[in-house]
Structure formats: structure tokens, C-alpha cells
Amino acid sequence: MLEALPRIGRRRALLGSAAACAVLGLLLWWLLPIGEESPSGTVTFSTGTPSGVYEKYGTLLRQTIARDMPQLDVRLQNSDGSQENVRRVATGKVDFTIAAADAVETYRLQNGPGAGRLRGCARLYDDYVHLVVPRSSAVRSVADLKGRTVAVGPGGSGVRLIAEHVLKAAGLDPQKDITSLSDGIGTMPGLLRQHRIDAFFWSGGLPTGAITDLSQHFPVRLVPIGGDLVAKLHAQGGASRYYRAAVMPADAYPEAQQGVSVQTVAVANLLVTRQDMNADLTDELTRVVIDSRDRIGAQVHAAQLVDLRTAIYTDPLELHEGARRYYRSVKP
Hints:
Elements: H1 4-31, E1 41-46, H2 53-68, E2 72-77, H3 82-90, E3 96-100, H4 101-109, E4 118-134, E5 149-151, H5 158-169, E6 179-181, H6 188-193, E7 199-204, H7 209-217, E8 220-222, H8 227-235, E9 244-248, H9 254-257, E10 262-274, H10 279-291, H11 293-297, H12 308-311, H13 321-330
Parallel strand pairs: 1-2, 1-3, 5-6, 5-7
Antiparallel strand pairs: 3-10, 4-7, 4-8, 4-10, 9-10
């Protein structure tokens, strides 16, 4: 009887150890992504013009993806901007891009190739329309551009699209009432400094580095785009319904604004892909975009405005199934 006690104690100890191992195994199964691998392969991402916010945002996002999804190779491609970006994704030339909502809607209304396959992943941040002139310029409104030489952006850019809408809202014919140049943000500032143009339009996040740099080396001013033009823009119908009245804060470009906020027009940017993109990959990439807001925002101020509460609203595009899965997983 006395000899049996040690054997019972040993058996209980063994049973206790087995139970502890089972519990530990369950905890590990619950806490660790066993059997789940990070997405791998190669994806292409269309950004924008050098010196623009799209290009800088894309570069920083690729760095973040390399850290969080190390098996995924992200290859960036520069572009003229939103209109070209939308076309590239819709036709399968790239996998992901950033594009303004008005450019997406324009492509859809034109029934461009593959338009029905476009899907949204996230609403990111707003582009603000900049109308930049020398500080000494007599131009005080969009209508004052009549008869002047104005850079309006490349043909495939979002700035070209919105500039033409704004000019028409101000009663100007972009083909007849101004001399338009198709330069982008990479060359616009230099042309203004050399007095080869009277003004230029730009549509981008705040602040855009090229305009900050220009304002620090050459006296410029931002021309207000008043609220009355927003009503006229909406009256145009179609993609113009995505424009809204906005205000550039006084500290966006301190040297250019001289402590004064500027009325303008804004449009939302979307992270765009195609319906056939892998759902697991899209789920993970959407998560990285939302989670990297502060990290990217430290260098691209506009990225600080990415907000989980509004990211789900990707109108005019339906959410991609992978992005929808992500938003459901983080829903309170």
C-alpha cells in the first residue's frame, strides 16, 4: 500500500504534464499564424510623376510592405497620373494603383476596356487643386487666366482632368481661351520661375514637395478657387460630382500663403485593383496600407488622413472581396 503511493504520484504528474502541453499547444495554435504564409510573388504598382505625392507614397508603401510582407516583391512604375493609372489597372498592365475618384468615374462613364473589373481597396486621402502664380501676378481668380499661358498637366494625368473641369466652370474654354502646356509637376515650377508660363494647375496631397521647394526659392501665391465654382462643377454632372469645396490650411505652404488659408476644390484618392486580384493578397495589402498610416504620414503628410472609419467608402467602386474581408475582421 505504501509502495503504491509514489507510483500514483508519478502517474498524476505525467497526466498533469500532458494536460499542460495540450493547453500550451492550443494557446500556440490560437496566437501564432500556423499554416498561414505571407503572400508571395510579384505585384506591380503604378504611382505617378516624379516629385508628386503618388510617387513618394508608393515608394514608402513598398518599404513598409517589404518589412511586413517580405516574400512579396512590389515593383513601382511611374505614370502621368490618375487617368493613366486607372487605365493600366483596368487593362491588366499593373495590379494596384492610386487614382482620384473623378478619374475612376470618367473611365467608367467612357466604358473604358476592363472598367467593370475595377475594384476599390481603400479611400486614402484627398487631392487639393493648386493654382499657382507668381506673387506679383494680376491673376486673382480662375477667370483671370483668359489669354494666358497655363500648364495643365499631361494628358493622362488627374490634374489635366480636374483643371479642364475647373476652367469650364469658370467660363473658359481650355482649348481656346488659354495657351495650355502639358507639363507636369516635375517641370511646372521651373517654367514659372523662368516666366515661360503665367500659372500652373496641380492636384495633389498637402503639402506637395515640389511646390514647397518652389515657394522657398521663388515668390509665389495660391489663387483661391471659390465655392461658387463648386456648384458650377456639380452642375456639369458625371465625374464632377466627386469634387467638393475645401480649404488649404494656412500652414500648408507658409511662404506662399503668408498666414492665409486658401479656398479650393478637393477630390478623394482611392487604392484601386481588379476583381480578379487574389483575395488573400488584397486583404493583407489593405491591412498594411491602413496600419502604415502614421509611419508613412511622418514623411508624406497627406497619408496621416487615412482613416479606418472612412477607408471603406470607395465610391464609385465596389470593394474588392479581400478588402471587404479585412474591414470585417477589424469591425468593432
